[in-house]
């Protein structure tokens, strides 16, 4: 019985990048008009994590911001949280 419980706990454990992805998703959804079109693809590797944000084409400009300031701020927040949870993070906007 104990083995079953331990297996379930292992399956439910979050990766550190999941917390960062949750933050990025929260911020991006607050910026865009079409929240349903927002999706994140998280790729974990030995070097760190890559979070690719996909959104509606009309909302991509809002996520990127003027002169890239908004996406730069999102990357800064993601990297800061990544350091706290022990992983390196990169955020890219796919469009």
TrEMBL record:
GO terms for cellular component: cytoplasm. Pfam families: KH_KhpA-B (PF13083). GO terms for molecular function: RNA binding. It is found in: Cytoplasm. InterPro entries: KH_dom-like_a/b, KH_sf_prok-type, KhpA. Signal peptide: none annotated. Keywords: Cytoplasm, RNA-binding. A probable RNA-binding protein. Belongs to the KhpA RNA-binding protein family. PANTHER family: RNA-BINDING PROTEIN KHPA, UPF0109 PROTEIN SCO5592. This is RNA-binding protein KhpA.
């Amino acid at each position: 019985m104990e083995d079953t419980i331990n297996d379930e706990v292992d399956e439910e454990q979050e990766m550190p990048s999941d917390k960062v992805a949750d933050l990025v998703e929260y911020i991006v959804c607050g910026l865009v008009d079409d929240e349903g079109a927002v999706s994140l693809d998280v790729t974990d590797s030995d070097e760190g994590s890559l979070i690719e944000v996909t959104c509606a084409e009309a909302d991509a400009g809002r996520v990127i911001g003027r002169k890239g300031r908004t996406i730069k701020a999102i990357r800064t927040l993601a990297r800061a949280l990544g350091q706290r949870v022990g992983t390196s993070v990169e955020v890219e906007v796919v469009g």
